């Protein structure tokens, strides 16, 4: 697929932004300024101020001799860059690859995107219409290379769409500064009477290198397409994503559901062909007013079952606020894993962790009540109870450590032991009763003690003597005494778990 780029240039980026916020400044002369060696120097001037001879780089005191009532606003570091990032995020509705081009531009990699808007000219017209509708004075151009598109956007006086392979003709009459050359190189070119790119485009490369260095050759080669130039996307492009632009803005939940189903079918078909499955997915809607709405889901195991994934998204569709309408839907697989095709069984087997229905049930529950409320534990190689188990990262995760079944362990283990009041004979008899959360438990049956020592290579501290007890109501608990019995009443007793 041939590469195509769009370069957008904002002639009055920062001042347009302020006019959007304060429409009363529309026809007023104002500037942004920042301190520079003890003086306030202008960093950006409004269109009205520029028309009267005030421009960026001037000292504010000099500018006020031209416009006595000039309004001055304090500039902030990175303001222009942050504005460009926000506009580039807005432009992601037109292409997944959008990058900023400081100090006042944006680059879009539109390869394979223009046909979704009916062709290159309607595509470029739509972008400019929307940006100008927001209040920005924007110029744009389309070409095979970033350098050519950028040069035409800022300095071109011909058509904004350069046909494939037409970079040389488009650049011929432009000034050297259009190639993004340093000021020193531009001045040396002008001293030699080289006021157009065409005047040195076909000169011997050795002569150009000897007189102007590598910068001129690199920039010229990039603009002509002889050296590839790449951009750093504002957001990384995920390998598995689908886009659905809308002919008319979507404002109903039914329309959102239809768009989601179409994107899920397309994405899952691709995942199935590549034996992949998604674990996390994001469904985004780009609204007409420039805002983005999204919902996300997660699965316990990799899947490409579109019906199951739609059931996970469905309860959250009502949380999407379409506003004046959604014009673009994007479905992204945030995390994918291997998911080989399922083999049909000749007979039904017993349900287990490999059962797909179990995984789908857990996914629906997790997306309703939250994944943090559903846990699966695996044994870990530790003696100390708090460290003897760990959370599984996936439903089908396997472990080489076996569960310890030689001694009973509670089905519910407290995250931290809680202190209790105990009445117990001495020295190693189990307790006769204990009080937990202001409730008295009289012990009917008990077994123990089981001594568990701390893992000395991890921490130091007293050992624990555990007892398995059952009260008169049939409740069974796991209690322990911390440290040796010393005959005083300072012994610390704790409850650590509950048996079924």
Looking at the structure, what is the overall shape? Answer: elongated
Q: Supply Rg.
A: 35 Å
Structural class computed from helices and strand pairing:
alpha+beta
CATH topology of the largest domain: Alpha-Beta Plaits
**DSSP helix count?**
14
Strand order of the largest sheet: 14-15-16-17-18-19
Weakly predicted, low-confidence segments: 343-348
Tally of discrete structural domains: 3
The largest sheet, given as strand count, sense and whether it forms a barrel, is: 6 strands, antiparallel, barrel
- Looking at CATH, the homologous superfamily of the largest domain is Reverse transcriptase/Diguanylate cyclase domain
The CATH architecture term of the largest domain is: 2-Layer Sandwich
CATH uppermost class of the largest domain: Alpha Beta
Strand content: 25-35%
Question: Residue share in helices?
Answer: 25-40%
Q: What distance lies between the first and last C-alpha atoms, to the nearest angstrom?
A: 63 Å
Mean pLDDT: 87
Q: How many DSSP E strands?
A: 19
Topology:
Elements: E1 5-10, H1 13-21, E2 30-36, E3 39-45, H2 47-51, H3 60-66, E4 71-74, H4 79-91, E5 97-101, E6 105-109, H5 120-134, E7 138-143, H6 146-155, H7 167-171, H8 183-191, H9 198-201, H10 205-212, H11 214-224, E8 241-250, H12 253-273, E9 276-287, E10 292-303, H13 306-313, E11 326-338, H14 356-369, E12 377-379, E13 389-391, E14 412-423, E15 433-436, E16 439-452, E17 464-471, E18 476-482, E19 492-498
Helix pairs in contact: 6-11, 10-11, 12-13, 13-14
